[in-house]
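Sequence and fold:
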Amino acid sequence: MPDSYPAGDADALPRTSIDAAAYERRSREGPCFICELLAGNPDYPHDLVWADDDAVAFLARYNTLLGHTLVAPRAHREQVTGDFRIEEYLRLQRLVYHVGEALRQELPTERLYILSLGSQSGNRHVHWHVVPLPPGVPYDQQQFGAFSFDRGVIALRDDELAALARRIGAHVEAMQSSER
C-alpha cells in the first residue's frame, strides 16, 4: 500500500463499488455496528486505531478517503452532546483531536474533516468521522462530495489497512503518552 496518495491523487488508489442500498438497509435495520464491533462480532470487522476504557477509534469500513477514522464512546450513546457530561464529551473531543493530528502526521492532508453523522433512523451510536482530505482533490469532490460512494470505496488488502491503523495508532499513543 502506498503510505500516501500517489502524487496527491485520491483516485489513484484501488476502488471498488458499493451497494449503497444494502449499506442503508444494514444501517437502518441491522444492529448497532459500533456495539457489534466492540462485542467482537466477525460480521462487523474494522481495523482498530486506538482503544481505552472509554472510547474507540477505528478505520471506516467503507472509506472514500484514505485514513477515514471513526471515534466513538464505548457506551452506546445517541445524542452528540445530550448523552454526555461535559467532562466525558471533552475527553472524547481530545481523542478526536489526537486522531486528527495523527492522520495529519501520517498522510498528506490539505484539510481535515471532522463530522458527527448518524441518525435516529440508522447508525444511532454517536461517532465522529475524522477524515483527511489529500492535496489536489478537485473542488467538486471535496466537502460532502468526498463522502460520496459514487466513485466507490477504497479497496486495500486487509494487511494494508491493519498496517495503516497501527501507524495512525502509534501517533495517537505518542500524543496520549506525552500528556500523561
About this structure: The domain at 12-178 is CATH 3.30.428.10 (HIT family, subunit A).
